[in-house]
Design goal:
There is one protein chain. The chain is mostly beta strands and 431 residues long. It has one domain: Beta Barrel (Porin). Helices cover 6% and strands 56% of the residues. The strands form six sheets. It has a twelve-stranded antiparallel barrel. Strand 18 and strand 19 form a beta hairpin. It is elongated, with a radius of gyration of 26 Å. The termini are far apart. The N terminus is likely disordered.
């Protein structure tokens, strides 16, 4: 699948503001025109008809695979764990709740400890994603080659090479709350609000493989009667609104010697506008196994989860409304929380996820029909891949039960859609 990069990269972020007629999923098809990329032509066919300089008319169908790749990752942006940083157990001898751990726990992962019956916390987290690359290809330098309809030697072996620059950013604001329904059972709610912005520029240049002697066959009109070979296409948009709401249940099922085991189930509700890429457009279920171990001021935690995803137009065809299964994921993380002081916890997490059977971009070299002209291009192949990150942060109990948090996540590889550095700022209050 080549010639689809620019289309799929439109899925990185944002879309038109609410109320606008055009949705993000339709943004790129309109960048070059409803039927594909046209160039001007003054040439006529042997039957006297005007030559139709139409390049890659099928690209609107071909972009589906990369659409899945981008959408599945964009709608899988990490959300800080909604679990309470203040955890308690009831001391029957004193008739009081006592803090069950000295640390305030991880930020992006879970721990087995529960909040305690009747204990409530709420908080707010802010994350900013500025995407840098996809599969190692910088987003400000994505090549793509467009071929003529029914390419053949002669006029139809001309191509249009494009140099594409994509500027994409997503701001994610998450409101979360956790409540202890029972001594060992919590329920959590996370409500993300997403604001996204996308700016695209594609510089298209006619490469006259077979018509070098006759620029009238394929050209971009320069407005002065000349036969130019270059044109810049630009488009942009933004969107904001409710994302996909997350509901999580967690129960502690085992405890021994400072160690704990918990099972959790997270449900994702498709409340975000998927056509503007604010949500996935699909229901999701994520069973989660959590192990943690607390030793005085140091706590360790391990998480393993499987993310099942339903059907969405983002995995099918957002233009026609056809749905297909979103790729499932395996998620895993582990880390340590250290109570540096009674009011300050340092956190480090290794966070990984594996996307299963999803389209992947790869670099390739396009060879024209003359056998000698070569251009940088991209293609796609279906497969699974993992992406990994290191997150470090601090959780500070400023006063009372108010907790302030700061975290930075660093990408450790170049697979998938990556933001090299992602900051998180948050606060939490417990009752």
């Amino acid at each position: 699948m080549r010639k689809t990069a620019l289309l799929a990269l439109s899925l990185l972020a944002g879309g038109p503001a609410a109320g606008a007629a055009e949705k993000l999923a339709h943004l790129i098809p309109g960048l070059f025109g409803d039927q594909g990329l046209f160039v001007d032509s003054d040439a006529t066919l042997p039957n006297g008809q005007t030559h139709s300089a139409h390049f890659n008319s099928a690209f609107q169908a071909e972009f589906t695979q990369f659409n899945i790749a981008l959408a599945s990752q964009l709608t899988a942006l990490p959300v800080p764990a909604p679990a309470s940083a203040f955890t308690y157990t009831f001391d029957e001898s004193l008739g009081l709740f006592q803090r069950s751990t000295d640390s305030f726990g991880p930020i992006l992962s879970e721990r087995a400890e529960t909040a305690g019956k009747g204990k409530l916390n709420f908080g707010f987290a802010y994350q900013r994603f500025t995407f840098d690359e996809i599969e190692g290809v910088p987003l400000d330098a994505v090549p793509a080659v467009f071929t003529h309809d029914d390419p053949a030697r002669g006029g139809r072996d001309d191509v249009v090479k494009t140099a594409n620059s994509i500027g994409a950013a997503v701001d994610q604001f998450t409101l979360f709350s956790n409540y202890g329904l029972a001594p060992r059972f919590d329920v959590s709610l996370a409500v993300p609000v997403v604001s996204a912005d996308l700016r695209l520029a594609s510089t298209a240049q006619v490469t006259r493989v077979g018509t070098a002697a006759n620029p009238k066959v394929h050209f971009f009109a320069d407005g002065q009667g000349g036969y130019g070979d270059t044109r810049v296409f630009q488009k942009g948009g933004s969107a904001s609104g409710l994302g996909d709401v997350l509901l999580r249940f967690k129960g502690k099922v085992g405890e021994w010697g400072g160690r704990g085991l918990a099972l959790a189930l997270e449900a994702r509700l498709p409340t975000g506008d998927e056509e503007n890429f604010l949500g996935s457009g699909a229901y999701g279920l994520k069973p989660l196994v959590v192990f943690s171990s607390a030793h005085k001021v140091v706590s360790y935690h391990l998480n393993l989860a499987y993310q099942w995803n339903g059907q969405s137009v983002l995995a099918g065809n957002a233009v026609t409304g056809e749905k297909a299964d979103m790729p499932d994921q395996v998620l895993y993380s582990g880390g340590v929380s250290v109570a540096v002081r009674s009011q300050l916890t340092a956190v480090a997490d290794f966070v990984g996820r594996r996307f299963l059977d999803t389209p992947r971009l790869h670099k390739e070299t396009f060879v024209a029909l003359d056998g000698t002209t070569t251009l940088p291009d991209i293609g796609f192949a279906s497969g699974s891949f993992g992406e990994h990150a290191l997150a470090v942060g601090l959780r500070w109990n400023a006063f009372g039960r108010l907790l302030l948090e700061g975290n930075v996540t660093f990408a450790l590889d170049s697979t998938g859609l990556r933001d090299r550095v992602t900051p998180i700022l948050a606060f939490e209050y417990g009752f």
